[in-house]
Amino acid sequence: MFSSAKTPTERRQALRDSLNSSTITKLPGAFSPLVAKLIEDIGGFEGVYVSGAVLANDLGLPDIGLTTLTEVAGRSRQIARATNLPILVDADTGFGEPMSAARTISEFEDAGIAGFHLEDQVNPKRCGHLDGKEVVPQDLMVRRITAAVNERRDDTFVICARTDAAGIEGIDNAIERAKAYADAGADMIFTEALYSPADFEKFRKAVDIPLLANMTEFGKTELLSAQTLEDLGYNAVIWPVTTLRIAMGATEEMLRDISATGTQVPWLDKMQHRSRLYELVDYEKYNQFDQQVFTYSLDSYKSTFE
Q: Are residues 139 and 161 in the same domain?
C-alpha cells in the first residue's frame, strides 16, 4: 500500500521483456508520483519516464545540468514507489565524470529504478532540441557507459546510451557512436533530435540493439505515432514533457481567468473531481487499514454529492 507491490528486479525484468517483445514500449513522462499512478491506472502503457528537463523545470530551473544526482534520484524514488510500472530515468551526463556515472547507477538501483539513460553531451548539458550543443569525444562516453556497466549490481537494470551527435556531427557519426556504445555494454540506444521517418529508419537499419525514440513537442523531430515507430522497428517511445505541458497550459489559462474574474466556477467541469483523486490515492484502502483513524468511504462521498 505504501510502496510498489513489485520488486525492483521484477520491474526491471518487465522493462527488458517489453523491449524485447514485438510491440513498442510506451513510456509517458510523469512529473510527480500522482501522475505515475494515473499512467498505471489508465493502462496501455508499459512504463513511466522521468525527464531531466521536466524535473529541472518543476524546480523552476532551465534544463542545463543544474540539477543534482540527489535531487533526481530522490524524485525518481518517490515516483517509483507510487507505481508497479518500471521507471526509466533521464540521468543526463551521469552528473560528472565516469566515476560519477558509476555512483549514479548505484543510487538509482537503490531507488528502485528500472533503467536510466546517459548522454554524450558535455557537462553541463543543454536541452537536446536546442542549438549550440556539444558532445564529448566518443572514448569519454564509452568510459561513462563502461563505468556504469561495471558498477551495475542487478543485471536486469537497463542501461541506455543517448547520443546527441546527429545534429552536430551528422547521422553517420551518430550511428558509429551508437555502435561503440552498444559494444561498451549499453542495452538500448536513444537517438536524440532526429528529423524524419527516414532518419529513424536509417538508424534502425544500422544498429541492432533496442532503440528508443523521443516524441517531444515543439522540437526538431517530426511527431510520429507509436504505431509508426513500431513499424519502423523501434522498441520504445517516450513522451517526456507532454503531461507537464498540458498541466501547465491549463493551469496558466485558469489562473489568468481567476485573476480577471475572481472565481474558479467556470473551470469546475474541467477539473479532476475530488472522488477521482481519492480513487487514485487509494483513500479507501487506507481507511480499511485503520478504521480508528480514517473514516472516509468513497461510496458515501459519492452519495452525498450526487
A: yes
Q: Which of 40, 164, 192, 230 is catalytic?
A: 192
- Whether 49 is a known active-site residue: answer yes
> Rounded to two decimals, what is the model's pTM?
0.92
Q: Note if 119 is an active site residue.
A: yes
Helix, strand or coil, per DSSP, at residue 25: strand
Residues 100-158 pLDDT 10s: 999 999 999 999 999 999 999 987 666 645 566 799 999 999 999 999 999 999 999 99
- Residue 154 CB-half CA count within 13 A: 22
Known catalytic residue at 192: yes
187 catalytic per annotation? no
Please check whether residues 287 and 165 belong to one and the same domain: no
Active site residue 150: no
Q: What share of the chain is helix, strand, coil (3-state, %, to 5)?
A: 50, 10, 40
Catalytic annotation, pick one of 40, 46, 92, 230: 92
Residue pair 204/178 in contact (Cβ under 8 Å)? The answer is no
Q: For residue 127, indicate whether it is catalytic.
A: yes
In-domain check, residue 3: no
Answer with the one of 240, 257, 280 that is the final residue of a domain: 240
Examine the residue annotation and report whether 201 is marked as an active-site residue of this protein: no
